[in-house]
TrEMBL record:
PROSITE patterns: GST_CTER (PS50405), GST_NTER (PS50404). Residues 102-229 form the GST C-terminal domain. Residues 15-96 form the GST N-terminal domain. It holds the Pfam family GST_C. It comes from Chilo suppressalis. Belongs to the GST superfamily. Homodimer. This is Uncharacterized protein. It comes from the Eukaryota. PANTHER family: GLUTATHIONE S TRANSFERASE D10, ISOFORM A-RELATED (PTHR43969:SF9).
Length: 253
């Protein structure tokens, strides 16, 4: 069930916050991972993009661009995953690990998130959209080249570091991991050419928030790419809370 005839359920945690999302979207999964890493719970509403629910009058009013995610906190509406994640960390987190308050470190993280939004995500869209929406059966050679160039950039960025912004995971790692794990489905990362990037993604995949918030949607995306599978309505049972989503994944594992 999408946003349009959803039954209202009061979520635990931040009851005044709602996230409209689709799990197959890397940008939505980035926000979900940020929520789980920050241990925040808000109301989450699954939107069936195959049925065009993201273009409904209700959601178009919230986001005229007709994209996901959409985040609402009282009267505030945000439609960019990076802005949403930074807002959540700034507004509701008591820890500064994922988003340090130091201006220098915060700027490094912002710079990496701009790399995600300006380089990685557009390359994901260029490669994936023809397969998802135009009956194309392969990633075009130029898109493969562009994605591998981005892999090379990340390999260089990770020189001498475990994580992208230093010694600990931050919102930069979360945002980039959501996109890179999806790119890895389209153009598998060659661990011999990109050993640092491959090791970084392996470490990210072991983080609990990657498992609870990224793994399911990544599997859905993979099925869509491999077989063109469209999800049935049984998976759309929102609104639900972030806490209940995390709990259901923990039970399955």
């Amino acid at each position: 069930m999408g946003a349009g005839g959803s039954k209202t359920i009061i979520a635990g945690g931040l009851k005044h916050c709602t996230l409209w999302k689709a799990d197959r979207s890397p940008s939505c999964r980035a926000v979900m991972m940020a929520l789980d890493a920050l241990n925040l719970s808000i109301t989450e509403v699954d939107v069936n993009m195959d049925k065009g629910e993201h273009k409904s009058p209700e959601l178009t009013t919230l986001n005229p661009l007709q994209t996901l995610p959409i985040f609402k906190d009282r009267e505030l509406i945000l439609n960019d995953s990076h802005a949403i994640s930074m807002y959540l960390a700034n507004r509701y987190s008591t820890s500064d690990q994922l988003l340090p308050r130091d201006p220098g470190r915060m700027s490094v993280i912002a710079q990496l998130m701009h790399f995600d939004s300006g380089i990685l995500y557009p390359r994901y869209q260029m490669a994936a959209n023809p397969i998802l929406y135009e009956n194309c059966n392969f990633v075009m050679p130029q898109h493969v080249c562009d994605i591998e160039c981005a892999y090379n950039d990340l390999e260089t960025m990770l020189a001498g570091k475990t994580w992208l912004a230093g010694d600990t995971t931050t919102l930069a790692d979360i945002s980039v991991a959501a996109t890179v794990s999806t790119l890895n489905v389209l153009v598998p990362i060659d661990h011999t050419r990109y050993p640092r990037l491959s090791s970084w993604l392996d470490q990210m995949s072991e983080e609990i928030y990657f498992i609870t918030a990224n793994k399911t949607g990544l599997g859905e995306f993979t099925r869509r790419i491999d077989r063109g599978t469209v999800c049935d309505d049984s998976v759309f049972k929102c609104p639900r809370s972030s806490t209940s989503r995390r709990g259901s994944v923990t039970e399955r594992n």
